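Before relying on records like the one below, remember that each one covers exactly one chain. Contacts with other chains, cofactors or solvent are not represented anywhere in the record.
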Amino acid sequence: MDTKQIPAVQKLTTEGMQQVWHGKPYYSLDAYCKNTFGEKLYKVSLNAGLSCPNRDGTLDTRGCIFCSGGSGDFAAPLPFDKDPERSFHLAFEKGIHSLSGKSTGKRYIAYFQAFTNTYGPLPYLEKIYRLALREPLVAGISIATRPDTLPGEVLELLCRLKEEYPSKFIWVELGLQTIHEDTARFIRRGYSLSCFDQSVARLHQAQIPVITHVILGLPGESDREMLETVSYLNHMPISGIKLQLLHILKGTDLGERYQKDPGRYCVIDSLDLYLEILISCITHLRPDLVIHRVTGDANRSLLLAPLWSGNKRHILNSLHREMRNSNAFQGKFFQ
């Protein structure tokens, strides 16, 4: 994901974009991987056993209001023992096995997903990143983290690894969720918008692609405010975006509030409403931004609402059908 591609992509005709996007009405991660690597790459989710400043007492002990486990419910744990390389390989193989039934290519993305994956002792971070980059089947690594946990030493490590493994990529996924400070305080995000901006600028300067997480349906946010977050990101030097429907889960503070007052906390209560909001966001997005996600996966045993979100395939099929029927496509209203 090279932001140098932006001018060329924006000059493409609608027909040209459809070819680049492999028939979808938006630039999916699947299309990007096929264009760039010649094959489909699936993310193998890994849990490196790290914590989060919102949980270890640095900022808070409760985590974000919606968090059940750092988005790592499906991540394979890394049980390091006397043979770390073997342990990593076994965990990685387990992650690949969890993809059974999906049509994968020959290589994968090692996705450090659970909690905050730049938040730990530097030697440990270097160990886990190197183990992933050495794995023969790994095309590159994607590191999910927070913009307030990117100290200079970690950024220097990522730059060094980029040079040492030139045939493999390193992406950083930053949770933003929203640009609106009132909502950020409500969800206990723990950092300001300016912190996000600074981290994106530093990663961009280091030529490390940034993927930004956005949550649609946060309590208190209007359709216009959700669109404002997407529009803001159009002007940031990021390479990809994840549009995540808010899942209300058991065992979270948001789940407890929802059970007391469902109408207040489940903002997007129907698939039709979600498609309307999602399509509005996609049609206003820069056409070169790679869309890594348009809904998300939730542990069905924990999902309180919206229950219809448990059928991811139905959501994707409905989205593609609705966008084609209404002649909607990524960037249609982008200026």
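Residues 9 and 17 are 8 Å apart (CA to CA).
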